[in-house]
Amino acid sequence: MISQTAEYALRAVVYLADQEGRPCTTARISKATEVPAGYLAKVMQSLSRSSVVDSQRGPHGGFTLITSPEELSVLEVINAIDPIQRFHTCPLKIPHHGSNLCPLHRSLDDTGQLLEKTLGDKTIASLLAVPKRRKPLCRFPCLPTEMT
After folding, report:
1. Are the C-beta atoms of residues 18 and 135 closer than 8 Å to each other?
2. Which overall architecture, per CATH, does domain 4-83+123-134 show?
3. Per residue of the chain (148 residues), what is the pLDDT tens digit?
4. Could you tell me the pTM of the whole model?
5. How many whole angstroms separate alpha carbon 90 and alpha carbon 75?
6. What gap in Å lies between CA 74 and CA 87, rounded to an integer?
7. Which residues, 6+ apart, have CB-to-CB distance to 47 below 8 Å?
């Protein structure tokens, strides 16, 4: 459905959203989300270039979200890293197909459209609006034994 890189980006963004605006270093995000630090650094650069996160250098620096979690959609994060593939014309370049997709590519495009709609309607805040034991990457900020 989505690439591993996009999923890593979502882990990082969800983690940042849970930090309530406090800057976080790549090392801290990497440890909390279990994303390899070197790979995460590249993901965070892409998120920064796409204006999903802001980065600040210095002893109190790190990454923060630019848009509030209540306004940032899951789809925006995915599109910043690896957009969902859609088919507007025949991917096989068959001249007489053009925009009149075959049943296979029409079905794939319909699925992509549905996925975009679903993920576009889901905010990052909604992923955190669950009991602590059900939070994504539930080891932060609570301990696994907490039951609230």
Report:
1. yes
2. Orthogonal Bundle (1.10)
3. 789 999 999 999 999 999 989 999 999 999 999 999 999 999 999 999 999 999 999 888 899 999 999 999 999 999 999 999 888 877 777 777 767 888 888 888 899 999 999 999 999 999 988 766 666 664 555 433 333 3
4. 0.82
5. 24
6. 21
7. 9, 12, 13, 53, 63, 77, 80, 81
Q: What's the token pair of residue 125?
A: 């805040």
Where are the chain's structural domains? 4-83+123-134
- Residue type for position 55: S
Instruction: State whether residue 85 is helix, strand or coil.
Output: coil
Amino acid at 77: V
